[in-house]
Amino acid sequence: MDLEKKIEILSAGAKYDASCSSSGSDRAGGNGAAHQSGICHSWAADGRCISLLKILLTNNCVYDCAYCVNRRSNDIPRAELTPDEVAALTYEFYRRNYIEGLFLSSGVVVSPDHTMELMLEAVRKLRDEKNFTGYIHMKVIPGASRELIDRAGLYADRVSVNIELPTAGSLALLAPGKTKESILKPMGRLAERISASRDERKSIKSAPLYAPGGQSTQLIVGASPETDLQIMRLSEALYKKMALKRVYYSAFVPVSADNRLPALPEPPLKREHRLYQADWLLRFYGFAADELLNEKCPCLDLTFDPKTMWALNNLDKFPLEVNTAEHLELLRVPGIGTVSAKKILQARRAARLSLEDLGRLGVVMKRAVYFVTAGGRYGGLRKNSAEAIRTRLLEKKEPAAAVQPALFDCAARPGEL
Amino acid sequence: MGTYVYDHSFTGLICAIKAACIDASAEITLAAPAQENLFSPAVEIASDAADCAEFLRRLDAMTGPGTAENIKLSWLWSGPEKEKMLLSYARMAFSKGKALNDLLADPVVARTHKAAAAVLREAHRFKGFLRFTELSDRTLYARMEPDHNILPLVAGHFKRRMAASDWVIHDARRGEAALYFGGKLRLAELTGEQSPPRSETEARVAGLWRTFFDAVAIKERENPRAQRGGVPLKYRSNMPEFDALENLKPPGGA
User: Fold this and answer.
1) Across the interface, do A48 and B217 touch by the CB < 8 Å criterion?
2) What is the DSSP letter of A236?
3) Measuring CA to CA, how many Å separate B76 from each of A136, A253, B56, B70?
4) 3-state class (DSSP) for residue B13
5) I need a labelling partner for A250 at 20 to 30 A (CA). Which of A220, B57, B191, B239 fits?
6) pLDDT for B141-190, tens place per residue?
7) Contact of A97 with B132, CB cutoff 8 Å
8) Who among A16, A40, A269 is closest to B230 (CB)?
9) Is A15 within 8 Å of B212 when comparing Cβ atoms?
10) Using the beta-carbon criterion (under 8 Å), do A32 and B127 form an inter-chain contact?
C-alpha cells in the first residue's frame, strides 16, 4: 500500500481524538523546538486546530469497543505504518513548518505491550535518528506494562491515556476489552513519574525531561447516559488527584449501528461546547463542579453559558463594584475573562474605573452590564431579576436553532429512559 | 516649535521623539516632507544609535519596564499615524511616570498597547502559518505577505528551531527577506517574485500533507466559519493545504 493511502486511513482513524495541543514544553537544542504556549498551524474543515501530525501507527485492533471506528468488527480498510515511516513523515512535515510535531496513537495489535513497543520504536527513531526536538504527544495503551509506560514519558512532551467513558458501567457495556483499573493504573503511574521528574529537575538541571507538557485524557460525550454533573465531578477529580493538564470532551459521532449505542441525529456539539466552558471555569476561574450543577439540576444549560447561569442563580452576590472587588470575585462576572480581570486590577491601581473604561479593558459589556457597578454607577436594569436579565440577554443573542433533545442528551436522565 | 523629519529608521524615529519630547509643540514626519510648511519649519534629525538606546533606557527608568518594548513592537505595526501615537505615548511617560502602563483605559496607552499586541498576534499566527518549500539545493524558502512588519520576530523564532538548515523567509509585501545560511541570520532586500526550482520530492511531500489535512477533518462536524476564524482567507494563498480554487474571490469581487 502506498504512503498516501496509509495516511488517508490512519489519520481518519485518529481524527476522533480531540487533543491537538502542543503546549507546555520548551524542549529545544536539536532539529526543532517546542513553544511553551503551543502553536496552531492550520484549521481543518471541521474548524478544529491542527498542530500535530495526528496519526495511528495502525488501525488494526484486537478490541471491539462499540463507539470506536477502528473496532475489530468494523469492515474498513486496514493499514499500518512502520516506525521509520512515522519518523520520516514527521520530520519532513516539520521542516516545512506544516506541524509542531507528532501525535501518535494506535489500535491494539497482538497485545498492549506489543503495540507500545512499536510506538516507542517510532518515537525513539524520531528523537535519536532524526535528532528531533519538536513536540511529541504519545498515547499510552491501557494494559501496557509499567516498564513500557515509564519509557513513553522519556520521549514524549505530553502523554495521555483515554478514559473513554465516564463510568465503569458504561465501559463494561461499550468497551468490554477495557476496565476502569486498566485505564487508571497507567494514568496514576504517569502522574507519579511526571511529578517526580519535575521535583528532580528543580535541584538537578541535567535530570532527563519526563513528559514536560504533562498528561491529558479524553472522554466521549453522548454515547452513554451520564449527566454533566457526573462528568464534571470526574474531571474535577482528575485535575486534583492526577494533576492532569487537560480533559478533552469528544461529542459522540455515530460510527456504527451497534444496538448498544444511542441513535443520535447529529453529534451533541453544543453540549460538548458547554462542557469545555465548565471545564475552563474549574481550571481558571476558581469554580467547583458542585457550584455549577447539582443533583436537582445535573445538566448544563444549552442556551446560556455556565458562568451566566451561575450568576443568574446567585444574583444576591451582584452587582459587584469593579474598583474594589477581589480578583476571584471579578472572575465570576459574566463578560469578564481571565485577561480582562487582570487588566481591571492593573488599571484601577492607576485610576478609578468608570463603566465606559471597562469596554476598553476587554470586558464584554453586553453581558457584564447587569452584574457590575463602577464608581457606584450601575448601567443594568432598574428592576433586576434573573428573569428580566435572561430576557434581555436573549434579545441580544443571535436566534439560536431550536435544540432537539435526543436520547442520551444530558436532559434525558437514566431514570427516564 | 517645528516638524521633526527622520530617516524612516527605528533609531531615527526614537531620536526624533527625543527631540520632540523637549519641544512640546513638535510633530514627527517621515523623511522628505511633501512641502515646506512656512509656519512650522522642518528640522532634520540625525540617527544616532547611542542616543536612541540611552533614551529608551531613560523611558524604562521613568515608567518601569515595558515601555521601550512596547515602542519597539509598535514600530513594526503598520496602522495609521504611528509616529504621532508613539510621540504621545513617550510624552506621557514624562508626565505619568510609573503609572503609564497601568493606564489601560487611557486612549493613547490603550492604542499603543493594542498596536504592540496586534504585532505579536500576527507574528504568532505566522509562526504557525508560514510554509517552507524545499528548493533543489535543499534550502527552504517561505513567502509571506503579513499586515505588519513581523519579519524580525518570525526570523528569530525559526532560528531557534531550524538552526541546522539553510532558509529564507520572504516578506513579499515589503520586499524584504530574512536569510539564514551557515548559521548566520541577516535581513536584506529581496524584491520581485521568486520562483526558484523546487526539489524533486517537494510536490510529493506537499501532496501527502494535503491528504493528511483532508483526512483529519470530521465530516459530521464541518464548520467553515470556525475554520475561517482560525485561518482567515487572506493567509491561505501561501499554504499548500488550501487549494487555489477555494482562494478565488467570489464573482463580482475585485
Assistant:
1) yes
2) H
3) 33, 45, 16, 10
4) helix
5) B239
6) 999 999 999 999 999 999 999 999 999 999 999 999 999 999 999 999 99
7) yes
8) A40
9) no
10) no
